């Protein structure tokens, strides 16, 4: 495979292998570098696949499971080569995918269970390559040990279970094809012993146990990689299988000297991993873990001279970080020569003679270690400068007593002189400040006016501190209230929220004063959460809200005033509507209503009516009757002078005018049709023979029998109904002239005799002989010719209308 090769040697022995015998613990394949020294011992705890669906494979004997996550698409194959060339050694395999899970493997997509001895093969190598085309082979003597490789796509998942059926041998696995897997994390270790850890022990014990912080190797191993996890293990097997991670790697006590510890780095997304071993060493060579001792300049009367007292016993403990050093003797000297000659040893406490930074020398000796001399640097850090501060707060409430809420952090710029490295903690008294106990919340209500607090000012880098004071004072002032002009809730959303310009309150200020606005009094006192855009502030409490304006001079409060905001409701009215007037009924008028909801008194409102944008003179009531179409609006104003407009669209309609009626009749089936064509502005609906409906939208009526019909056309907007009679001419299909009173005569039906009174109907026999001539107004033909009854047969007719139209047809005479 065209891949970056990563050295990956995995030696798994019988005591290690149980974790890979089942699908859920499959080895995740990374890096496409193959495996060497793999072994498969035992069948695992469960059989994950259905043997009946995978007939070429029996139960597992000595199995190992591999999980393949495809990174890039391509071909995927492998060659499995046993370390022993003994033909008795027989390895089989199944492949599941491409969406396989351990709980749902399904049927294998590749399978080889050929027995090399039974198949008389030259070797016991097996696998999948591009030179073969079968996808399954075996068992026994069937096959040659190889099947065709796979075409795989990025994102797919495959499982391979390899089973050693007979023989005893480790095996190697070489990947083939162009597909790739995810790469394992890299190990950023510069050299072989780069992450070995070594500590000194002077206890004299045969097998000393010392606490090691393994996590100091974590950033080295990770390097710049992200989304990876590093764990530590006491065996390579545990590191490979991700078992028994050391619970507290920051405080791991060795169990032997030397001891090997294994670090595993795992990609949290792909689960690919890598691992490395390093040594923990304990020696009696004298090591000075710390060669710099830092104190603050606070041990004498002058806290600015860069000098202080060093307790040399405490210095020794700091140098060796509390290691066991009871068998060693330590002395300090001003120079290397003094240390070597043991001249002029220093006594404790030692006051440095060179301000801020000075070197001295420590000499250590013991019965089990050689003499060692080390230069130690003594550093004296300055204390923060003392800057006392004063905060002046306002007490503008109704019951003023000078005790109000302070934001103590407002004093920080003065206390720290704007030094970002300095932090502050506040206390009631100096002892608490020195002891760093019983600190105060920075939101603090004074208990007297004035009141002095003590402040521990700490350098966050050096941890040196000084004590300053903070004086709290309260100005008791009169609280003033300013009213912004009330606004109507006319911004398009009637929710009681509106934009205000708080600066329009015109609160008077001196030229040296500033003003800021807050939504509540506590925030104004604490100077928290100021309103960022006071010129375009939307109230947060609907309809009525108070905001607070804090006036300051410098950082001192000189007043907190109230600004009242009021949003007035618009009239609550019914929604816009549409109505109509009838042009054919000039005395009929549409009644328009302003439609006020929840009205207390009509006198609380004024009304202005407009038609098509033009004011209607002298119309000031809540109602209006109109007989003309147009767009009517009524402007409704309530007693808070808020106006809302209702629009009423008045459309014109009228009763229908019947233009004509189209008729399709004289059909031999009952499929005659009437279509009514009308004129008019209205929306019309149609009914046959039923003035009260039901009505239909279509002006066409189909599948009608012959006869007379009354067609009704109704205006949907109640401007009237019109109707007209329509006749469908039809010829009865038969008649029975047997004098029983039923169908004794034949004549056309549905012919309007008032219009076609001179129409003539001619009746013929099948030979064209004229038998009878009748009119639609007659009773009809009785089935005789010159008084003689004619036999049952088919007869023919011709209808001639006055407008010269003709219609022909036939009918039956039955006796």
From TrEMBL:
Gene3D superfamilies: Immunoglobulins. Keywords: Signal. Pfam families: CHU_C. Residues 1-19 form the signal peptide. NCBIfam families: Bac_Flav_CTERM. This is T9SS type B sorting domain-containing protein. It comes from Flavobacterium piscisymbiosum.
